[in-house]
Amino acid sequence: MIAVRSAVCVAATLSMIAACASAPDDEGRRQAIEANVQEILSLSTGKDGRPLRCLSDTQYTGFRALDEKHILFTGMGGKRWVNALRTRCYDLRHGSVLRVRSFSYSRICDTDRFAVDDWFVWPWYSRWPWHWGAWSTGMTCTLGQFYPVTEGQVAEIEAVLRGR
């Protein structure tokens, strides 16, 4: 019995060491992917040669997560913008509604905070008395700048992200 316990402890220790050894490789790969995506986005700028700081509520009609750091916003007439979040947002793929705490009533901007919720959680179940004033059930994340992109650039970004 003692031999079995010792073997289990040794196996658990070795798996933890292996996981720690692969973590720097994973982080390096993640940084390389982020650099490739940023290179694609650097070709996308607004009218003044820089990424957009804000999008009007009337400009975009939907969104979808590309990964935990990038959101694709779609608009009328085939317009698209990729938002490069300030930090990773691990809840992005687990919801269908962005609940934004914006400083403006008619647009979303760089540094606005948001949470991702499921449609069935919002808006009905987040009202009193269920959440007692809580504005979200998910992780709070922060928007970054909006990069106008073409359909081709979106395809390139998705190919880079798939190549993980």
Descriptive terms for the model:
164 residues, alpha+beta, 9 strands
Set down the secondary structure blueprint.
Blueprint: H1 2-41, E1 54-56, E2 60-65, E3 70-75, E4 80-84, E5 97-101, E6 107-109, E7 113-117, E8 140-142, E9 146-149, H2 151-162
Antiparallel strand pairs: 1-6, 2-3, 3-4, 4-9, 5-7, 7-8
Give your account of this protein's structure:
The structure is a single chain. With 164 residues, the chain is of the alpha+beta class. The protein has one domain. Helices cover 32% and strands 24% of the residues. The strands form 3 sheets. Strands 2-3-4-9 form a 4-stranded antiparallel sheet. The longest helix is centred in the first third of the chain and has 40 residues, at 2-41. The N and C termini lie far apart (43 Å). Mean pLDDT is 77; it is low at 7-19 and 124-135.
Beginning-to-end CA distance, first to last residue: 43 Å
Main sheet characteristics: 4 strands, antiparallel
Q: Structural class, please? A: alpha+beta
How many structural units, i.e. domains?
1
Strand order in the sheet with the most strands: 2-3-4-9
Low-confidence stretches: 7-19, 124-135
Summarize model confidence as the mean pLDDT: 77
Number of strands: 9
Share of helix among residues? Answer: 25-40%
Compute the CA-based radius of gyration.
20 Å
Query: Any idea what the shape is?
Result: globular
Estimate what percentage of residues fall within beta strands: 15-25%
What is the overall number of helices? 2
Order of SSEs, N→C? HEEEEEEEEEH
